[in-house]
Specification:
With 191 residues, the chain is of the alpha/beta class. It has a single domain, classed as 3-Layer(aba) Sandwich (Rossmann fold), CATH 3.40.50. The protein has five helices and twelve strands. The strands form three sheets. It has a seven-stranded mixed β-sheet. The protein has a three-stranded mixed β-sheet with strand order 5-6-9. A two-stranded antiparallel ribbon has the order 7-8. Helix 1 links the parallel strand 1 and strand 2.
């Protein structure tokens, strides 16, 4: 079991630390040759989606990652990663990987000062801490998309087959529940 962590920009190190605490090896994806590594899952971290999208294109990673995800590679997109996975953005014309059939609103909770933390229910886990930093939320989902978490009536976590999209940052809390959920999803895919 090995998880790739997109390490172009953003909070990738925090995800590597969470995986290490679970005893799961990870490696950073920074360039095309990094995709030669075998991986059982992929984490796309929070950060700046515009910068990450631009770098994915410039480095030739976008199409290959899109194909891997479409072929069943388990992926978890966090905040900016959710934006990169989304098929549609309600307040931006840009499309990136576009593998997750949802519509996402960027910066839906406002700028950095609009950051907040709550305890909320996560389907299949229970009540966990959710931290939002310049967060998006999911405005619309396709019929086959499963809602994992909502806050104040807004969808903030979804699963669609091999893809998890989260508007919040599980890597900034002490809880490993979400990473454990993703690792279990990756293990089911490999067995």
């Amino acid at each position: 079991m090995k998880i790739g962590v997109l390490a172009l920009q953003g909070a990738f190190i925090e995800h590597e630390k969470c995986l290490a605490r679970l005893g799961i090896p990870s490696f950073e994806i920074r360039q095309l040759s990094d995709l030669e590594n075998e991986m059982d899952g992929l984490i796309i971290p929070g950060g700046e989606s515009t910068v990450q999208g631009k770098l994915l294109r410039e480095l030739g990673l976008l199409e290959i990652l899109r194909e891997k995800i479409a072929s069943g590679l388990p992926v978890m997109g966090i905040c900016a990663g959710l934006i990169l996975l989304a098929e549609h953005l309600s307040n931006d014309d840009q499309q990136h990987l576009a593998t997750l059939p949802v519509t996402v609103k960027r910066n839906a909770y406002g700028r950095q000062l609009g950051s907040f933390a709550v305890q909320s229910e996560f389907k299949g886990i229970g009540t966990i801490p959710l931290t939002f930093i310049r967060a998006p939320y999911i405005e619309k989902i396709a019929e086959q998309v499963e809602v994992l978490a909502k806050v104040e009536g807004k969808i903030v976590g979804v699963r669609y087959g091999n893809q998890i999209g989260l508007a919040f940052h599980p890597e900034v809390t002490d809880s490993l529940d979400v990473h454990r959920y993703f690792v279990e999803m990756c293990q089911q895919k490999t067995s």
